[in-house]
Amino acid sequence: MRWWDIDPVLELEGELFPEDAWSAGMFWSELAYARGPDATRRYLVAEAADGSLVGYGGLAAVAGTGDIQTIGILAAHRGTGLGSRLLRALLRAATDFECAEVLLEVRVDNAPAQRLYERFGFAPLGIRRGYYQPANVDALVMRLADPASHAAAADAAVPDAGRGASADAPEDPPPASSPHSPPNTHQGTNTHG
Ligand SMILES: CC(C)(COP(=O)(O)OP(=O)(O)OC[C@H]1O[C@@H](n2cnc3c(N)ncnc32)[C@H](O)[C@@H]1OP(=O)(O)O)[C@@H](O)C(=O)NCCC(=O)NCCS
To answer: Which intervals of the chain are annotated as region Disordered (predicted)?
Structure first.
């Protein structure tokens, strides 16, 4: 994800997560951590053949633990393997960051996302009551130990199926004039992955 992707990402964000969409400032903050040798974030976009943005995902790595911050595919492009490709790429990023484990939160009523995560070896760890506000929906916390081996296994087992789209666009740092200084958290807003 590059800084100029933020506007189109925000349009998707409103469709994918209407109840608790991230702000532009939050994406700017995340991308500010995705640059240089001390980077702790990796954000990727999925583009259709015509160059339009149809999905995105992001991972944060702190002290050897990765956290899927967000992942989403536009409804019309789901079920073609793009979500899997994005997740695989994020697990590769976790491996690059030398994470020993990867965590995520997912709404307890989000069966498609839970199936995706289970396919990659994520296992339930616990419940966070009322994690998603204002809807007051619980989050299932899931954990993947040893993302390196799971990413490799997923590479071998799941052929790239994102017909006509790419989930491997390289990230690019935002300019130094990013209007928001990067916080360590999401300014009180929850993750989407
Ligand atoms: C969760 C999400 C990212 C999955 O994205 P996706 O692109 O549909 O994921 P995939 O295509 O890799 O897999 C989805 C299904 O399509 C199937 N599939 C993948 N490629 C396929 C192909 N070429 N032909 C047929 N089926 C295919 C998968 O097996 C999977 O089936 P299942 O749900 O029965 O297990 C997507 O549903 C989404 O964006 N949801 C809204 C946002 C959201 O909830 N994000 C997660 C927050 S925690």
So the answer is: 154-193
pTM: predicted TM-score of the whole model, two decimal places: 0.87
Q: What is the Cβ-side half-sphere exposure of residue 137, based on CA atoms within 13 angstroms? A: 15
Question: Does residue 106's CB lie within 6 angstroms of at least one atom of ligand 1?
Answer: yes
At how many degrees (to 10) do helices 82-96 and 111-119 cross?
50
* DSSP-assigned states of every residue in 100-122: SEEEEEEETT-HHHHHHHHHTT-
**Catalytic residue positions, numbered:** 105, 117
Give the closest residue (by CA) to ligand 1 atom 33: 112
DSSP 34: S
3-state secondary structure of 165: strand
Residues 148-162: tens digit of each pLDDT: 887 676 666 654 433
Residue ranges and CATH numbers for the domains of the chain are 3-166 (3.40.630.30)
Query: Which helix (H) or strand (E) is 138 found in, with range?
Result: strand 137-145
